Structures are given as C-alpha cells and as structure tokens.
Amino acid sequence: MNNRQKQEEILRISGVNARKCMKCGKCSATCPAYDEMEYHPHEFVYMVETGDIDRLMASQSLYKCLSCFACVDRCPRGVQPFKLIEAVRLMNIRKQGNNHMTANDIPSILDDDMPQQAIVSAFRKYTK
Amino acid sequence: MQKVTAKTLSGKAASLLNAGEVKYVLGWKKGEFDYDITPALFESAEELEKDFVWNDFSCANLSKYLIKYTRSLSGKILVFLKPCDTFSFNQLLTEHRIDRQKVYAVGVPCSGMADEKKIRENADGITAISETEEGYLVHTLYSDAPAFISKEEALLEKCLSCKGWAHIALDEQIEGEVFAPSADRFDQVKALENMTPDERYHFWQNELSRCIRCNACRDVCPACTCEKCVFDNPNSGVENKAAANSFEEKMFHIIRAFHVAGRCTDCGECSRVCPQKIPLHLLNRKFINDIDSFYGEYQAGLDEGSRAPLVDYDTGDLEPSQVFDWRDGQNA
Amino acid sequence: MKVRYFPGCTLKNKAQDLDLFARKSALALGIEMEEIPMWQCCGGVFVSANDEVATKLSSIRALSDAEEHHSPLVTVCSACHNVIKQTNHQFNTDSAFRQKAVNYLASDTVYQGGAEIYHYLEMLRDLVGFDEIKKKVVKPLTGRKIAVYYGCLLLRPNSVMKMDDPENPQIFESLIRALGAESVYYPMRNECCGGYIALESKELAEKKSRSVYESAKSAGADTIVTACPLCRYNLLKNNSPLPVVYFTELLAEALGAKEDSNE
Amino acid sequence: MPVNGYKPLIVAFCCNWCSYAGADLAGNNRLNYPADVKIIRVPCSCRVNPMFVLRAFQRGADGVIICGCHPGDCHYTSGNYFTRRRMALLFSMLDYLGIERERTRVEWVSAAEGAKFAATMNDFAETVASLGENKRLEDLRCKK
Amino acid sequence: MQRIGVFVCWCGSNIAGTVDVHAVAEALKTEPGVVFSTDYQYMCSQAGQNIIKDAIRDYRLTGVVVCSCSPRMHEVTFRKTASQAGLNPYMVEIANIREQCSWVHKDVPTGTEKAIILGRAAVAKVNLNAPLTPGESLVIKRALVIGGGIAGIQTALDIADAGFPVDIVEKQPTIGGKMAQLDKTFPTLDCAACILTPKMVDAAQNENIRILSYSEVEKVGGFVGNFEVTIRKKARYVKEDICTGCGACVEKCPMKKVPNEFNLGMDNRRAVYIPFAQAVPKVATIDPNYCNMLKNGKCGLCARVCTAGAIDYTQKDELITEKYGAIVVATGYNPISLDKFDEFAYNQSKDVISSLEFERLTNAAGPTAGKLVRPSDGKHPHTIVFVQCVGSRCDACAEKGKEYCSKICCMYTAKHAMLTRDKYPDTEVYVFYIDVRTPGKNFDEFYRRAVEEYGVHYVKGMVGKVSPEGDTLKVQASDLISGKQLHIDADLVVLAAAIEPDASARPLATMLTASMDTNDFFTEAHPKLRPVESPTAGVFLSGACQGPKDIPETVSQAGAAASKVIGLLVKDKLTTNPCVAQSNELMCNGCSSCELVCPYGAITYIDKEFRMPDRSIQIRRVAQVNPAVCQGCGACTVACPSGAMDLNGFKSEQIIAEVDAICR
After folding, report:
1. Where are the alpha helices (DSSP H) in chain B?
2. ipTM exceeding cut-off 0.85 for this assembly
3. Using CB atoms, which chains have 3+ pairs under 8 A with D?
4. D59/E660 touch (CB, cutoff 8 Å), yes or no
5. Is the pTM of this model over 0.80?
6. Residue at C246 is within a domain
C-alpha cells in the first residue's frame, strides 16, 4: 500500500472526515495521555488529513491512547480523533508479526489483582 | 363474516335517529347483487330496518360522500367508518372539506372485506352469496351446489396490508376486534422497482392500455374531490374526456396520482372499483413509498391538520438527481 | 420486574463482589436478574473501526437474547456496558455492519436492533427510581463522605451512552444521597484512571490514578466508589489512600442485604 | 455532439431570477450549447407543473430540464424547495413507468453560473441525443 | 383573436450575424394572430421604438412580440413603448434571440431556425395574454419597531426624525437591550451607558416615538403598507403615566431575594423594581411571580408608600391594536446556555462565568460596583483564563453549539483582557483562541495593543477541561504553537459563549411570515443587495436578529433599515405587481394547499356563499389572494390540485402554449 492508499484505508475504516478539523486543539487539551505521546491527537488528525501516514504508523504514540473518548466528546467539530488513532493502530497490528503485545509479555506484567478486563482490553488494543 | 353484526350498527343508528341526535345515517345497502353493496343515505329507523347492510361487501369508504351531504343536507349525519376509512375522513377534515359539526362519526371494527372480483373470477352467473365463518358460498345459475371460496382467498387487496390501527377522530366507537395487518404493502412496488426499465414499461403499458377512462377510480377516490377536475376543465390544458392513446392513459393516471400524492391514505378504493382490474394502488403506493423513504414516514390522515409532504420541505431534502442512486442503494 | 443480566468475565473472577452485591441488592429491590445463558466476554473495549465485526458478535448475542425475552439488558461493569451499548449503536446506524453481523451470526432469530440497554445505575434511576430506593434503605450510610468515580466508560461517548450530562453527571451522586451518605464533589470524577494502559505503561496509569484519588481526597472524601473493576484496580494498585469500593456493595449495605445469605 | 447524429428536442424551464439570468450570462460569454435546447421563462422553478413536463413529452420533446436557483437562494425564499420535492417524485414515477430516467433533470444554476448553464445543457443534450427519440411518452398524433 | 405585431431586432450584427432576421420576420408572419411583422437594426433605439408605436396605431395591434435581447434587458423599455402607444404594457412579450440564440449558436441556419421557434413561442403566449393593471394600495404612515435595544432605538429615532410616527415594542420593562448591560465598547473603549442612555432619552422624548415597554407582539395581519398588529401590554401593576420613578416602593419592598436578571442573577432585586437607574421609561414594575400582595394578597407596602398612588394591583394585560405601514424586527440576541459545555465547569463553579457576566462584574453600576472580584469569595483574581469560541463554530452533527462564528467574541475578549490588565496589572491574563478574527476598523490594532502593550497572553489552542479544585480552577489546555499541554491554576475563567437569536424571534417570524435560517436568524431578501429587508414585503431587519453583529454594524444596519422604511412610508400608495396569483373561486376546493406553500402569507380563506343551479345557497371555503402581498412565484399554482389557482402573466395555458409552439 502506498501512502495515499493507507490514508484512504484509514479514513474508510474509521469513518472519520479529517477535513472537518478546524485545528482548535481541544482534543489535545483534553487528552489524558498527552505527555506520553510523540504526536498528539490534533497532530494525528492533521497527519492523516495531509497523508503523512508512515511516520504516524511508526510512532509509539498509537499505543498510548487510553480509549477514554474525551476527545470524541469534547471535539466541537465532531471529528472523533480517537477513531483515527484506532484505525491507524489497527492498520499496524493487522500486519503479520506486528502485534504490539504477545501472550509471552503477559506473565511479567500480570499481578494477582489485575482484572481479566484489563488483559482482554489490552489484547483487543494491541494484538490481532 | 364481520364480527360486529349489522343489527348492532343499525340499532345504534336507529336509536340516535329516534333520539333526534342525528337526522341522517350514511351506511350501506344492497345493490343489484349480493356482492354489490353500495353507499346509502337513511332517514328513518324503518329504512334502516329494511335496507341497511353490513357485511364483508360493505367495502365502500363513505367519507367522501360527506362532502356532498354536509353541504346539501341541513341536519347532523351519522356516518359509519371502518378503521381505514377514518384516515380518509381525517384527511378530508385536514383539507377543510367536511363540516365536522354536521357529522356524527361512528367507528366500526372491521374483520376484513371481500373482493367481489376475486369471487367472480371463478364463478359466472352468481345468483347469491352467503357468508360462513370461513368464507363464502357462491350460488350460481349454472350449478346446484354452491361453490366455496375461503375468506383468505377472497380478501380485498387493501386488507392484505391492513393498516390495523385504531380508529381516529371519532365521536363514538363500536367495540370489537380489528383485522390484523399482514403483508408489506410495498412488496409489489419494490418488485417493480427491481425490474428493468423495459420490463416496467411493458408492465404498465399492458396495465394502463386497458383503461377505458370510466373515471370510476377518480369518482370513488376520497382525495379526488376537486370542485372541478383538471381533466374536465377546458382551460387546464389537459382536458381529456376519453383517453385516445397510450400517452393519454399514462397522463391521466400520472397526474391523478400526483394530485393525490401526500394526501392519498392508501384506502385502495381506486383498484377495488376499477372494472379493468388495473392495479392503480401501485401508483399511489409508489408515491407513498417514495415520500416515506425520501422525506420520512408520513401517513396521510393520521394526524388531523398535519402538513402533507408536497406542501412541505426540508432544506436538506434529497436532490432529484440523487433519487435513483439512493433508492437503488436501498433496494440492493 | 425481570431483567436479563450480562455479568461479564471480570465479575466472575476478580470482581466477584461487584456481581454478588448487585444480585443481593436486586433481590432486596424485587428485581429478578436472569443471567443470560452462555454469555461471552464483551472484549473489554469497543473497537471503533467500521470493519471490525467479529469482535462485536458476543455483544450482539447478548442483545439478541434480551430482545427475544422482551426484557431490559442490564450490565454492572462499565466496560461491558460501554461495549454493548456502542455495538448496539453501530448495529442500528451502520447498515453494512448490520448485514455482516447478521450473516456472521447466522442464527435463527435475527437481532432487530431493539434491545434496551441499562447500566445497573440506570436501572436504579429509570426502572426503580431513587425515591423508591430511599424508602428501602434500612441502614442509611449517614456520615459517610463518598467520592463517586465515573471514569470514562459510563459517560462517553455521550452521543451513544446518553446516561447523563457527560461533564456534570448526577446519577451516581443521586444514588449516594439516596443511600444516606454525603456525595463529595471533585472535578476528576469523569477523567480516566489509565485503564488497560496499566499493561503498557505503569507510570502513566499511576499518574492518571493519582490525579483522581488526590482530587477526591482533597475534596474530603473518605471512600471512592466505582462501577468498574479496572478503575478500582488502578486506583488501589497505585496506592490510593482512600478505600475504593464497588457501588453495589454500598447499595447492598444500605439495603441491609450485604450480610444476607447468597440465595 | 451526439455520436448517432440524432438532434433531440429539449425544453428547458428556467426561473427568471437565477437560471434564466445564468442562460443570459452564457450568451454574454458566447458559450456554445446545442440549439436543440429551447428555454421557457417562468418566474420560479416552482411554477413548473408536472403537467407541463408531460405536455412537452407528449408534443415530442426528447428531454425536459428544469433549472432554478440553488436551494437556499430562491428569490421567493422557498420555491425551489417545493420544486425539488415535486420533481423528485415525478421523475421517480416516470422511471417507475419505465420511462428513461435520463430524459428528465433538475439543475440548480445561479445567475453567475453561465458556464455551468452551458455545460449542463451540453451534457444534457448529449445524454438525451444518445437515448434517441422519446418513444415511451409520446403522442404519435403530435409528431410531425 | 389578437392582432399581433412582430418586431425582429438585428441588434447591429449581434443578432443579424447568426440569425437571418428577414427570414424570422417573414416566417412569423404566418403565425396565428400575427398581422404585422418587420425587422430593424436597433429596435430599442428611438427610431425602433417609433416603428413599434406606429405599428400599434396603424395595425390596431392588441399584442406585441419583440424578438431581441433578453427580457431582463429591455422588457421594461418595450412595455413602456407599448404603453405610450396606448397598448396595455403586459401585452408585450420578448423572444430572447440574442443571449439565448445568436450568441450561443454559430451557424446561420441553426440560429435562424431556433429564432423562429422562440418567436413562435412568444406569439403563442401573447395570443393568450390579457391586459393587466397594477393594483394600488394605501400606505399607513406609521412604523412598528419590535425590540428596544440599540438596533430598535436607532431605527426608531431615524424614522421619527423623518417625521413618521413609530412605536417601539419592548418585552422588558425598559428599553436599552444588551448594550445597557455592557461596560465599555471596543475598539474605542467609550462607556456603553454614556453613548446609549442619551439615545434612550431621545427616544423617550421624541414626540413621534411611542415606547410600549413590557409589551409583546401578539398577532400580525395585513400586508406591506397596511399591517394590523395586536400588541399585548403586560400588566406591570404600576400606572405608567402616574409613576414618577422615585423608587420609594422599591426601597420598601420586603421581597429582597429575587434574582436580578439585569445583573444575570449575580445579585438580587426586589419584587417591585426598576431594572437600572437610567431605565426608560423610568417606571417601576411589580414581578407577579414574587410579589406577596399579588400572590397571597398580603403586604401592600408599596401602595402605601407610593405618594403618587401609582400602584394598581388590579391591573390586567391590555391588548392594543394598531395599523402600520412597515415593521422592523430588532429582536437581538442572547448568549447560549452553557449547560452543554460543562467541561468548562460553568455549572460546577461560581468562578467560571460568561463574558456577559464579566461585563456586569466590571461595570460600575454592576453588582460589585465595578470591582473585578471572584463571585465565589469576593477575592481579587490573579490569574484569569478567557476561553474563546465556546459553542461557536461547532459541527452541525456535534449535538451542541452553533455552526457559525459569533463574530463579536474576539473583540470583546480582547477588550476584557486589556481592561483587566489596565486596571489590575498584577493579574495574568490568558486568552485561548482558535483564530483571532478582527475584520473591522481599528479592530486588529486594538487586539495587537492588548498583546503588545498590555501583555495579554494569547495562546493558540483550546481549553479541554476546567477542574475546580478547592479555590483554584485547574485549567488544562493545549498550546499548539509550543506543542505543549498547559496546566494553569486560574482564579477566574471567562467563557465567550456563542450568541443566538432571541427565543421570541421564531414565533414572531411565523406571525410575520418572514423567513428564517436554520439558526433562527432572519433571512434577508438578498444577502448582498437587500441586506436589511426581509423577503416579506414591508418587513425590515435591524441588528443581530439577522446575524451576529457588533454595535457599529448594528447601528449602521439600523439606519439602513430606517431609510428603507422611510422610503416606503413617504409613498402615498404602492403599485403592486400585476403578475400575481389569482384563484378561481368556482373551482377552489378550500383545501389550504396553496396557503401552506405561500412564502408570503398572501393567501387567506373566506367562507363564501355560492348560488347553486337549483337556486339554493351553499357556503364554501375558498382561497383569496391579496395582490398587494403576492410576489408571483407560482408555488401555489402547482400545489392546487384543481387548477383553481393560476398566475397572471404566466398562466398555465400560456406556458402550455409555449411548450406546444416549441415542440411543434
């Protein structure tokens, strides 16, 4: 896939119209994982809009999103940055050998109290 | 067979007549044949006793007659309305065609009506029809033993997709069960839409070419109540007493359907009375289906005073150019 | 009143209290919670991509069950609730997804999209009524200062969840007040605890959790109450100075159902 | 120009305020379109009765196009919104009767869109020409 | 049968270059009704017009067809020509053989053939033309202004100065509107009250102006030049003509806990009140929702202390009916409710306020006497965060907020920031913006001054969440230029709420049959060329009811609306366009379809008696078109199922004749 195709694929599976963004930065203002990210929610949107996909796909920022939906709710333009981040991450992990987390990683992270929900969720987000 | 008896209805009417609450009763009486039950105006309990008929052939929607009678008669008129007729009644109220003050509307529960054409299709020379629980016994000139046709087989087209809703806008309602809805009334419309244009053309060419311009559809239609029909008006540019060719057949039916679009309650009277068995309701249902899918569901006559879709708009309405792509997408 | 109940995997394991007290309270309130037979894990999080179908089928099975039984579908866990509700929304708004999902499931009864989904809190508010609960409280939690913690999943995305005002919700507070305790306002009640990021970055999870419990503590609360096992885990794992309990436990306590036998 | 060489007869109803002015602008800018297109001026597209459209077909028109102000710009504020509904339904009905859907069109052309007017007419004339003679909605008695 | 003359113009070579004009004139000679046909180089010239005039007389023409340029060009010219020769001007039709023929086609045979067809269509139409006479209607020389803010006041003053009586209807107890609540005005920083209150007094003292305060429009009938309006004068329980505005009643009223709407609920007023010191009329009003006397019949203190005897607890609402020639809508705006934007914690902290509340907090006549303090604890704020675009520029699907830019917020926020820094230099001021929009005279200079001279921190970015922690407001925001998430501990947060039309606008528009956009702003007749007129004749727009506006813009629009009103009122009579709809009562069903599609409310229904063939009388409901109101769009003609409704000048049979002629 070339960059253009990737861009189209991301827009298709996310259902997001990145052009609606007016660059107000409210998503980034509201994002709880902002400080951990290399690219921030508004940059995600801009990079998808302009087709700067490869850098985005290579970034660890994809795995920092907490799926808290704050950017979705607070965006005045209904852009839904979360859905873009999710789509880009899926593009990545849907590729052979690109899982961000494997079953082997789990034992070291696990502790006695950790709810099943956390492990299931992480697998949904980080593996395919 | 109707669950509510004719006696119940005529008794109710007679008591209101005798009490002076109403002066006239609009109901049904027998015509030439058993299957030919026609609208009739009664003025006394005696007349009711003698002639009033309520059975599976009391199909006629009486609402349209109220336009004429509320104007020409000076007393209150009792009218019997089946659930589906009440939509027409309500639509006429919306269009200010009936003086509500002069009407005493009584809702009649209906158990489904019979289609004389379906019965006659298999029986020539009918002398009498008797109703049974399950259907009809048809006596003919040519056979001693009456033929049986079941209620389902003989059911009127409109009853197949009965609106099944409760009566609306009435003064009084006779208690009883209402026929339950069944088929999707747009099945045939969708089937036609899914044909090729050629198939559609030939279908309609075949149907409409049978039109003899008897005007029965227009005369019975509760939405076709114009003081003067454009087809009778020399200044309208489309005046046309009898269709001379296929264009005029189409012209008449397209314009008629367009004029009632958004006002047609889908009462099915047009198809019922058509002596040529043209499925005219498929034209009206096409408009109804289009209106429902383009502009949101709308049932003419459901709410008195509602704004018909063709005298309304939304700034985000579908463009005429999008109609086909959009619908093809829906039907796919 | 009968409801169909989707417990979810965590409630069968690490969060058995959440489940146990939900059932006990329901019993006390006269609600029959019928556990959906053979329910399957919701997946923990909703995957928003249009073309993700398989991950949402378990939710649709649960929805279909509720529709078939003409009963509200009730969840207690925030995450299950969020996933099921978002899946239902997509099912009803995205015809391509709907078609695919129906084809995948290939079941005899096709889900029509008509299930009514209630979080246990919504059930208390909309089907029981907080006034009614107040009447049934036998051991009011007088004197307790409770910080309710919504987290993200109950409220957002609001266009789908429609539980309450997502920025200034009241449903949880109203319940707490109905139970006789004081509900302490603090602004971080609808911010993220870090969620599953605990597996990716313990630091981030710690930072987020800390901001929540510190806000609650400085507002004077003595207990944090939540509906989500993961929220509870994160807060406790990251050294919340306040106890973090499930709301069902408080409810059961106030209704006097906590110590009763299970059945 | 049409491949089959058929010269169709096209009736264009144009609203006085936008589309008729747009047609004038096409003229001012000398933008060619086929002479097959004959314009009838109406105050507003909402003056166009479905009967007029059918009449044109009856008398031998091969295509009918209705042009009005863009939705929201109607000189009479709402006329073209009614046109939009009426014609959407009428065209859908004609299609239902098996009449070629390409023979009818509604186009919004503002007074400033001379180029759009010419382009629209060129395109429409070409489409209609490629369909050939209107045989499904004609009245043979009216043919030359 | 008509006697029609055909006049084919060459337009120099403009037409004659591609159209054989002789052939056209020749071909049209044989058309039905044509008795004369000729061509000439320039038909619109004096000589050309004389040819037409002569022919009308010589051939006793009853109709004229001119084959020439577009009717949009010379229809008026040729109609005048015909009229000078004694022919009804509406018996003239133009065949457009220049713009729509010679200029767009290349070869002569094609051009000629089409020109003949177009000429034929015009002849066919004229054959069915009927003489039309423009109607006349009287103009009532009185105007109504709805809304007594700065827009309404300015419009009323300008109309009154031209010598026409004006009524101002204001729903509040005083005129003044939003401007009366403002502190200073950008970009000159003059005090709002200092420039507004003299105008309020002018309005009160102008003998042509009658102020109907505490009143609302209840019903509107009639049409341009002749509206009939019913106004409800709400009972204020104080006799307006007797009350001196001394305020003794206010002082004695024991009901002290009524939220003061003038100060946006930031302090309290009494149950009997005068909204502010400079109110016009300066008359007390009793609030029936709070007055003990009105509620339970107990108290009566105010009546006892009123030496003028103005208190009247028995007062009732009064309906006034008045006729007007013109109506001006000046219903203004309101800030939107901030309930749906509680990420900014407006409902969670008293120290998160709207910009209008900030105006009151800094206004010398406000609840704090102009001292900028926190509403929660009265302390001086050291850090203030202003948030722009709260509820403006939102996506239509976002379920909250408005799609449009509210236009005034950038400037008033710059003003607030600047004034704060000026008065309290120890206060840090942050303004979070998406864009700073300053298109106005001296506007950008003003904004730059706020930044450069006053050191206001403008941050490109948005606030994501405001968290009230203890007595600070933790503001989490983005700084898009530095690429940082900011965390600011603020003492006060000010939200620039979007503005929306006043809620009274929508029902009023329905009464006026004036159109509105989806945001409930009134639509102008033309967005560029007729910006102060509604498409409904005789209804004019002033101020923010038409769209967000600042004061200078409002005042200029108010003046423009006034000049349009004056232009209407100086006329004694209005000539009406005769190309209007007409209903054939014999065919009318009375179904109301036409009434429902009419954008002007030109159609009414009456019950009319009809004598039937059998001499009986029937009463039927039939439509009637008011020719003074109808604009001639024709929407009704198609809505009418029976064809009873037709349009003069564009009758169905005329259009059908054109179709037939073209398709022949």
Report:
1. 6-18, 45-51, 65-72, 83-94, 116-121, 151-154, 157-160, 187-193, 197-208, 216-220, 246-260, 269-273, 281-295, 323-331
2. no
3. B, E
4. yes
5. no
6. yes
